[in-house]
Write a structure and sequence with these properties.
Blueprint: H1 5-13, H2 20-39, H3 42-58, H4 69-87, H5 102-113, H6 117-129, H7 133-144, H8 149-156, H9 160-183
GO molecular function, one term: DNA binding
Pfam family, one: Sigma70_r4_2
Keywords: Sigma factor, Transcription, Transcription regulation
């Protein structure tokens, strides 16, 4: 049976270096996924994931358990990716905020319900890939990794209100992209 993160952290701090492998096993897919969303390159994402765990291991004595270990390791990974992206002089783009009404969302949901699930997943993935990297990360953390706004704020260094606005904007962009696909008749082939 698996122990909570705190158990392994304590074991590592007491000198049982091998216990860190349990934390790596538990979070390696999530850390790699976050790095890949930001860096969009398998090799860079693998390297960043390794670097993140090395940094976490070396800094484990400074981890104060004020947030979950997953939030802390996400933060390390996020910061590493942003540093690398800045070195590459890539800029995160933004769009003007637009309102997504409940009616718009309900209409889209009704259309999506009628479609094949595999096609929906494919279209959602394509729409997500068209979002700026930061928005992809926010959507991934919130909807797929089920992180709370507070945790996402800690991971990204953005204020909670800024996280909410950016997630709202990303949802609006995805809605627009899906709606555009619908208008172009992509959905009619179902």
């Amino acid at each position: 049976m698996s122990q909570p993160d705190e158990y392994y952290i304590t074991k590592v701090l007491e000198g049982d270096v091998a216990s860190f492998s349990y934390l790596v096993d538990r979070y390696q897919d999530m850390v790699y996924g976050l790095a890949f969303k930001l860096l969009r390159n398998e090799e860079d994402a693998e390297e960043m994931a390794q670097d993140s765990f090395v940094k976490a291991y070396r800094s484990l004595n400074s981890y104060r358990q004020q947030s979950k270990f997953s939030t802390w390791i996400y933060r390390i990974t996020y910061n590493g990716c942003i540093t690398l992206l800045r070195k590459r002089k890539l800029e995160v783009r933004s769009m003007d905020e637009q309102q997504l009404t409940d009616k718009d969302e309900a209409q889209l949901n009704a259309q999506l319900i009628e479609m094949d699930k595999a096609l929906v997943e494919k279209l959602l993935q394509e729409a997500m890939e068209k979002l700026p990297e930061l928005e992809q990360v926010l959507i991934t953390l919130y909807y797929f990794e089920e992180q709370k706004m507070e945790e996402i704020s800690q991971i990204t260094g953005l204020s909670e209100s800024n996280v909410k606005v950016k997630i709202h904007r990303a949802r609006k962009k995805m809605y627009d992209l899906l709606h555009q696909s619908y208008e172009e008749g992509i959905f009619s082939s179902v």
